[in-house]
Amino acid sequence: MNITGLSGTYQGRSIPLTGSVVFGRNPQSCTVLFPDNVKGISRIHCRIDQISSSNCTLTDTGSSWGTFLNGQRLQPNVPVNLKQGDTFWQEDNSNMFSVSGSGMMNGYTGKVAQFAPKGMSKGSKWIIAAAVIIIVVLSLFLVRSHNLEEIRKQEQQVQEMERQRLEDKLDREREARYQQEQERLNQELNKTPGRKILEGVVDFFD
Known about the structure:
Number of helices: 2
Radius of gyration: 46 Å
Number of strands: 11
Structural class: alpha+beta
Distance between the termini: 138 Å
Order of helices and strands: EEEEEEEEEEEHH
Oligomer: single chain
Strand content: 15-25%
Strand order of the largest sheet: 2-1-11-10-7-8
Largest sheet: 6 strands, antiparallel
């Protein structure tokens, strides 16, 4: 027996059933692997076990969203026989498979190889490319904004230093003018005759 994807990730692909085939998103445990961004698929969702060359069972492995066989939801961990023409899916029919007869290669007896999703479509590639461009532009904008903020901080520091320098200069100039004015007044007083008379009286009484 084998299964064929009718919709979704494995649409149009045929998968031989031999041994156990595990469906889910866990690359370490699953042979039919779904991408992480596929909704409704648990990490280990369901399993098909080959009982004999013409008999297989489908088991829901306790998935969160359920496994449906011919429209009926399966009980968790209860195997159900599959027959040719059956259809099953995970959560909804966006990822549907059908069961067909012996489509395996003659003499094929090994473990089923891990099946991976098909390559990305052109639309998906354009979406990813656009997302990358947006991330790069945002990163450059954030770096530029950070640099502008640093430049503003440096300019503020320079302005503050210049303001302090000017204030210190004005203080020194005011102090110098004050000292000059004091010296001028003292010189004027020394030239006044009254001051000499006053000093002479003071000396007389001393």
